[in-house]
Amino acid sequence: MQRTAEAGLHITAGDGISLSMQSALDETLALAGDCPEAEVAALESFIAGHRRLLVLTGAGCSTGSGIPDYRDAEGGWKRTPPVTYQAFTGEAATRRRYWARSLAGWQYFAAAQPNAAHAALAALEAAGRVELLVTQNVDGLHQRAGSRAVVDLHGSLDAVVCLGCGDRRDRAGFQAALLEANPGWDRRVARIAPDGDADLEDADYASFQVPGCPHCGGMLKPDVVFFGESAPRARVEQAVAALHRSDAMLVVGSSLMVYSGFRFARMAAEAGIPVAAVNLGRTRADELLALKVRADCASALSALAGTTMQ
Ligand SMILES: [Zn+2]
To answer: Ligand 1 center to residue 100 CA distance, Å?
Structure first.
């Protein structure tokens, strides 16, 4: 089954947002009938048979919240690959383009709500079944759904850090600074991406002003791990330790194409810890999996709710 996640997500500033967000939710609800009972049953027994889970989530977990994922069913890019750390720090034009698109996409990203997949994982934790939830997402939706034992492997978009003095500030506050320097840019047509980036049409980025750090004038960067950057060691070590305390690993909505997520599946396999994955498309770890559920995350996990939460 192939999803065209972006089809319903062409977000137009103004009145477009509610329609496109709604269509994404409708799509998720429509998919709820698409998860075969046999696969749900297999996932149920997998979870029932393993008391403590390390959960790893990716972009597919948030598509039901209107945040599109990066990859198609074959693991290829659906849109232009994300900005790399090297390009962001090395090229002023790339930073202008990044922040211009981020300014336009932020309001939609910030308005996204947790979906049934987030809720089911929070319920699983409340039932004492989750050792740790490691997410590759930067949207904060697991925490908003009530999950507490969460490691944001790739950081969080709700903060901005200064590469000069290390100052860390709220992204919402930086939005005001961006808008003040670039009036009207929030009303441009945008299509959001999983990292809060957005596609703008016919934009002339050359005129865009990127405010520097208010303390030192240094370069500001969203507090997320960019492509080409490594996940911070402390977070990786926390996840590895939790994996070794777990009976099984559950991957939700990640193709594991990026090494930072794939390594946990490989470590689990090496340690004899079984791995199950819920993902619509191919994953890089398919040959390592004890169970593969080809289904939308929200429909597969909400089908579990109430049956495996004891
Ligand atoms: Zn600074």
So the answer is: 20
